[in-house]
Amino acid sequence: MVDIAIIGAGPAGGSAALFAAKAGKKTLLIDSDQSITKRAWIENHYGVPEIKGVDLVEVGIKQAQKFGAELIRAKVTHVQQSEDGFQITTENETYQAKVVIVASGLLLDLAETIGLQTKPGTEPRVKAVFDVDASGRTNVEGIWAAGACAGVSLHTIITAGDGAKVAINVISELNGERYVDHDVLKA
To answer: In 136-169, which positions are buried (b, 16+ CB within 10 angstroms) versus exposed (e)?
Structure first.
């Protein structure tokens, strides 16, 4: 059983996995390799002069793995509540997690099977998004959503920040107190 399972390894999911793993949470990152970011050319991501979307995604995954996140390349087909969290089913395997963060980009196909409520999207060409509160909570206790699927702008810098925000909120809830992650230069 992992503490946090994250569905989707684009900027939101990768960022959430980075924060979760760095906080010492046992973190599982499940990705179907369908991120629209992989087709992007990015010149508006703060701190990065320019980068291919595929490279941004891979760097984010490597950062999360550095702190212990486990990456599984698979498509999630079902999520259901279990006695102590959630059972996450892929085409080949089943995993257990206390909490789930959905960061599936534009893919909302899990909404119906999980029972997540959606609402109309506000971004151009985005028809629907998960209905979340300001912290990223969905209508299903223990399932959170981050990034484009949660209705934030499709810009990678914004989805990455939303993934970090939601992960910090999840970590805080698991810890029972507000979590902060501030690195300091080492002498």
So the answer is: bbbebebbbbbbbbbbbebbbebbbbbbbbbbbb
Element (H, E) at 81: strand 76-82
38: pLDDT strictly greater than 80: no
Cβ pair 2, 96 in contact under 8 A: yes
Domain hosting 95: range is: 2-175
> Residue 122 domain-assigned?
yes
From residue 14, alpha-carbon distances to 42, 64, 103, 157 in Å are 17, 7, 9, 12
pLDDT band at 46 (very low <50, low <70, confident <90, very high): confident
How far is 96 from 107, CA to CA, in rounded Å?
22
Q: How many independent structural domains does the chain possess?
A: 1
Q: Encode pLDDT of 126-176 as tens digits.
A: 899 999 999 999 999 999 999 999 999 989 999 999 999 999 999 999 999
Give the domain CATH number at 77: 3.50.50.60
User: What local confidence, expressed as pLDDT, does residue 124 receive?
Assistant: 85
DSSP single-letter state for residue 69: P
For the whole model, what pTM was predicted? 0.94
